[in-house]
Amino acid sequence: MRLHSVLFLASSGLALANGLESNSTHSPSLTLAFSGSVDVAAPLPPIRIPGGVRIGISFLPPILRARVPLAAFFSNHFWLPPVEPITGGTFSGPALNAIVSGGLAFPSVLQNGTVQDASITIYGTTRDNAPFLVQVTGIGVPRQQFARVAVEVGGKEAGLMDEFLLATINPSADRRTVAVSGYVVG
Questions:
Q1: What contacts 24+ positions apart, CB below 8 Å, involve 163-169?
Q2: What is the DSSP string of 60-101?
Q3: pTM
């Protein structure tokens, strides 16, 4: 899903929430709220769940990864990668300046390779020492996702809790750092 599709959906929802007709000429605008990166540790080992394990293809030896078809790793059309710990990072911008203390990422990847549910939780402190919690849910492909961002924060950044935020999420090739840009939709 491209950003303009996400914006169209967001603007339709905003128009309805504001009591406007969906054919309104209002076009949403994006204002950069923050950008930064988060550091991601190696995925956790496979987690036993009822009926199997939560495992990612990265746990297979390279020789097997090359020989076994990717479809063999899917169950019920979902590949469930292991939980990826977030170990740190920073955000800076006009609406949020913060240091990431930790978090978790646990996306669900469909058989066709799209990220159906980019679920991420991040916590830390703002530059003025107020705690924050960010919850991200989105969609996309493994190399880039678009997401809705919900922020809980105090201090000078408390106004972010009243905003509709979207973000782009771009993992590095080795998936150890992730670039994030957050935007206020207006």
A1: 163/33, 163/95, 164/10, 164/14, 165/33, 166/6, 166/7, 166/10, 166/30, 167/136, 167/138, 168/3, 168/144, 169/118, 169/120, 169/136, 169/138, 169/140, 169/144, 169/145
A2: S-HHHHHHS-GGGG-BTTEE-PPPEEEEEEEEESSS--EEEE
A3: 0.69
Q: Residue 38: which of 93, 105, 129 has the closest Cα? A: 105
E-assigned strand segments in 22-73: 30-40, 47-49, 52-54
Please tell me the number of Cα atoms within 13 Å of 13 on its side-chain side.
Answer: 11
Question: What is the percentage of the chain residues whose pLDDT exceeds 70?
Answer: 61
Query: 6, 39, 16: which is closest to 174 by C-alpha?
Result: 39
pLDDT in tens, 26-61: 788 999 999 999 999 988 776 565 555 444 444 444
8-state DSSP, 144: E
147 contacts: CB under 8 Å, gap ≥ 6 = 118, 120, 136, 137, 138, 139, 140, 166, 167, 168, 169
> Residue 78 is encoded by which pair of tokens?
């979902």
Residue 108 corresponds to which tokens in the numbers above? 């669900």
Length reported for the chain:
186
CA-based radius of gyration for the chain: 18
* Contact by Cβ (8 Å): 34, 92: yes
